[in-house]
Amino acid sequence: MVAGSAARVSTGLGGLFERPGVRVEVRDLVKIYRRGSLEVQALRGVSVSFEPATITAVMGPSGSGKTTLLNMIGGVDRPTGGSVDFGGVRVDGLSDAELDVHRLLNVGFIFQSINLVPSLTALENVELPMILAGRPRGERRARAERLLEAVGLGGRARHYPEELSGGEQQRVAIAVALANDPPVILADEPTAELDYEAARGVVDLLAGLAREAGKTVIVTTHDPRVAVRTDRIVRLEDGRIVGEYSPLELGGALQPGAKAGHEALAELVRARIAALEREIEAVEERARRGELGLREAARLIVALEEEVKALKGVLASLGG
Ligand SMILES: Nc1ncnc2c1ncn2[C@@H]1O[C@H](COP(=O)(O)OP(=O)(O)OP(=O)(O)O)[C@@H](O)[C@H]1O
Ligand SMILES: [Mg+2]
């Protein structure tokens, strides 16, 4: 499944992207929202870096500051304090006009509520950012077509958003975000409204952009099954970074003394359970194809299921 999706991405990526990712370095970032006399500290001194060719998941409870962090990096809003270095350029030091250009050319945004223009076809939606960037008509049409092919929607270019499934709409939105070949992709809960199959397709597409096109990809998510498909998980709580995990090392978080709050741990456990369940599926598939003897498959599945059962016990003890 993973390999299949990656292959589908890579066939469309050749020559589409010329601008590799850049390093994004956030230092002591503070964001205070003021409404009347009320103050909300959305970010309380966040320091973290995001590397090119890497997809990072930012996880954390609702209100922990995930969207705010993306908005500071993307130049949607200005920090109250601290700095955002974007490939050597200080985003927090840009003028309003420069920020407009930054958002148009350097950052591809993808949102939870898919924001396509309903009166434009998929193709026209993808062309729009290139029109704003002043690209010639012929060039932008050809590129829009190729981008739609790259996200697996070559046959849907003339469809309007309402004629597409949620997963397909989100793929169009990714093509829109990629129109001007931005080095950095910021995806804010892009899979929240999708079922798991569609969500997996979207996250694998985003992962392909990092791993194959070298983009810097940051994705916020509540779904551990999405997070485990990334290269790195950063955990935010109440405006602070409270942990960083490798999806491959989730088991390590279960060791006594691991620095994780209960909810952080529960999320990691859920993620590990999801990974194990995928492994079980993979074993079953190999057995079906005759690549694995039935007895060996049964042995593996029993072992994996025991681990799942044990982890579910851990989850129950954590109140999850
Ligand atoms: N424009 C705003 N004005 C005032 N407060 C805001 C504004 N935007 C966000 N906040 C507050 O800042 C905090 C962080 O919000 P943010 O949207 O970054 O959280 P989040 O982690 O993205 O949450 P969710 O998972 O629900 O999307 C919250 O307490 C929120 O209410
Ligand atoms: Mg949010």
Keywords:
320 residues; alpha/beta; Rossmann fold; 2 domains; six-stranded mixed sheet; four-stranded antiparallel sheet; globular; disordered N terminus; binds adenosine-5'-triphosphate; binds magnesium ion
Task: Provide a descriptive summary of the structure in words.
This protein is α/β, with parallel strands linked by helices and 320 residues long. It has 2 domains: 2-245, P-loop containing nucleotide triphosphate hydrolases (Rossmann fold, 3-Layer(aba) Sandwich); 258-320. It has helices at 2-13, 66-74, 96-106, 122-132, 137-150, 166-178, 196-211, 224-227, 262-288, 294-317, and strands at 24-35, 38-50, 54-59, 81-86, 89-90, 107-110, 184-188, 216-220, 232-237, 240-245. The strands form 2 sheets. It has a 6-stranded mixed beta sheet with strand order 6-7-8-3-9-10, with helices on both faces. Strands 2-1-4-5 form a 4-stranded antiparallel beta sheet, covered by helices on one side. Helix 1 packs antiparallel against helix 5 and helix 4 (122-132) crosses helix 5 (137-150). It binds adenosine-5'-triphosphate and magnesium ion (MG).
